[in-house]
Amino acid sequence: MSRNADFRVDASFNAHPKIRRLYALLGSQGVLSWILLLAHASQYETDGRFSGMSDDVIALAAHYPGAAPEFIGTLIELGLLDRRGKTLSLHDWNEHNGYAASYSIRSQRARKAAGARWSKKSSDATDVSQQSRSNAQASKESSRNTQPEFETAWSLYPDRKPNNPKRKALRAWNGALSRGNTADAMIAAVERYAAYVRAEGNEGTKYVKQAATFFGDDEFLKASWIVAPARANGLVPNGKAAPELGDEYFKRQA
After folding, report:
1. CB within 8 A of 251, min separation 6: which ones?
2. pLDDT digit string (tens) for 20-79?
3. How many other CB atoms sit within 10 Å of the CB of residue 162?
């Protein structure tokens, strides 16, 4: 599951002076890339800040086919991006996309809720075990219980058919922890991968990696999973033609 399924753009955005100026300077591709940058932020940079990202990487995330300095410089000049020190952020992101901006808070609440459910299940299982098994058997059963962080990651993992064994995934998860990966980092990796799978249109198919395979490879856990744009031929992910907001469209809005 991606962090946010959508983001907000005002229906009259095309009439805003900044957007009309953006179109005049960079054409329809500039406007499209700005919208794609908003989409990227809603999934990966939910606070609207592109911390640790260079101008080139930001332009790549926006699928801008031209020079990164041209794109970034124009957005800053028009007040669509703000630069504070070395960090760029979307202008008034919290005001216009408050739901996306509150992702971290919602994520923490979800993890706490998952932890509470897991604790209750663990407690109930322990009560049953104490009534019907010896202490040694109860200890063996408790070792099979999953962890709340794993349950969070499992709930976010993209659907795979025909199979995706959960017990094997848990063993691979524990192996990843033993290799030095943190639970938070792996949950974030799952979110990136889920967004990538959906962007590729592969959810619910055999082309989704089994979770055991995903957690078993540090390269998968560290990958950015950004769908790289096909810069040639004006293509976007999946090889589909990039939507055009062409001259006639903007003339009609004048």
Report:
1. none
2. 999 999 999 999 999 999 888 877 887 888 988 999 999 999 999 999 999 999 999 999
3. 6
Sign of CA dihedral 114, 196, 95, 9: negative
The answer to whether 43 and 3 are in contact (CB under 8 A) is yes
In degrees and rounded to multiples of 5, residue 82 shows phi and psi of: -115, 140
Q: Which two tokens stand for residue 148?
A: 């709340």
Decide: helix, strand or coil at residue 88.
strand
Spatial separation of the C-alpha atoms in residues 195 and 193, rounded to whole Å: 5
How far apart CA 203 and CA 1 sit, in angstroms, is 10
If we measure between CA atoms, which residue out of 146, 148, 143, 141 comes closest to residue 117?
148
Single out the residue of 78, 79, 81 nearest to residue 62, CA to CA: 81
Report pLDDT for 141: 45
* pLDDT, tens only, 154-165: 999 999 998 999
d(CA 116, CA 99): 24
Q: Which residue has the higher pLDDT, 58 or 236?
A: 58
Residue 69 preceded by cis peptide, ω within 30: no
